[in-house]
Amino acid sequence: MERLLQTCRKAYRMNAYRPASRFAELAINSAKSAIKSQYENVQIPDRLFYHVWAHTDGVIGRATRIATALKLSTPFVTIVQTAAAKHDEVQLYARDRKVDGRVMRQRAIGANERQSGAAALKFIRQHRAAEGAILMDENHLILIEAILTTVPKWNSEYKTVVQPALNRGSHPVTRAVALADLGAAGMDPVQFDAEGPALFIEDNIDVALMLSDARRLVDIPEATQSTIQCRLVQWMATRPQFVQGRRLLLQRELEGLSAPERTSIKLLFSGFEESLHIAEEAPKKFASMSFIDVARCLIPNALPEEA
Fold it and tell me: In this structure, is residue 149 part of a structural domain?
């Protein structure tokens, strides 16, 4: 059981990337500070678990690797890193109360990306003294395009998430950021593994509130414990289809690139098989856990008065 807990609690792998410029470093540090103060160092339900710095850091790292594979210039890598750092800086939401009593997070999809783009543009204008071609007006449009292209949509055919604005004519900067945003399953199975329960607890506000309020196991009725665990298992059971869909769609999302560029990007997306195995095992793993272990996988400090 301890190994299961270690799996739940393991930190996202830190991405080994370097800021491409002084401006990129400023943007990354700014985004980190904003995300941590607004979404990590706050109380539930405003406290997020998936759209936190670990996710953004992962996107920056993956986007940098894709930009390198595409042989982008330093100014363009600066735009890639700035867009990746800023793409989730605004996270507006509403509470969606279901008839069965669940309270789900309903994100302001589209508005979040537009406002994140506006915040990124404001940051650029406030730091014009920093060096780099990022300050050229034409590059502002590329930055905004890259952020807006991360707007997600569910694809019922492939049972996965897509980015409808990504197409064969997308700028290489845009492509790098968009592919990185949904790229954990293909590029980083470790992060993909950790993001499953993180996304569940972020979206299921009623569960997050219940676990944050409870001090002991007896504070949550046994029937409710069973319901929460079943909801988690059912959610994790959708993850294999997500991985398979992302793998099938990758070829389409690389249209417009040269053959050598497609080959270079595909080499980066070598983790689908490992992520699929992780996703297939996860429902069984969470179904076999005690509720205390499940709770602490979702919120590490849950049920603090239990041994």
Answer: yes
Q: What's the domain count of the chain?
A: 1
User: Is 137 inside a domain boundary?
Assistant: yes
Phi and psi torsions of 118, nearest 5°: -65, -40
* Cα 13 to chain centroid, rounded: 13
Nearest-angstrom CA–CA distance, 156 and 200: 19
CB distance 45 to 208 below 8 Å: yes
Residue 182: C-alpha distances to residues 6, 22, 43, 55 (Å): 25, 27, 27, 10
CA–CA gap between residue 35 and residue 29 (Å, rounded): 10
The boundaries of the domain holding residue 261 are 2-298
Cα separation, 153 vs 266, in Å, equals 23
Q: How many C-beta atoms surround the C-beta of residue 125 within 10 A?
A: 10
pLDDT tens column, 117-166: 999 999 988 887 665 556 677 889 999 999 999 999 999 999 999 999 99
**Does residue 196 belong to any structural domain of this protein?**
yes
pLDDT attached to residue 133: 54
At 24-43, the pLDDT tens digits run 999 999 999 999 999 999 99
Q: Rounded to an integer, what distance in angstroms lies between the CA atom of residue 11 and that of residue 271?
A: 18
Q: Is the pTM here over 0.90, yes or no?
A: yes
Mean pLDDT, rounded, for 172-188 = 98
pLDDT recorded at residue 52 = 98
Cis peptide before 45 (omega within 30 of 0): yes
| Assigned token pair, 149 | 């292209």
Q: Tokens 């780099």 belong to which residue?
A: 132
**Integer Cα distance of 263 and 241 in angstroms:** 24
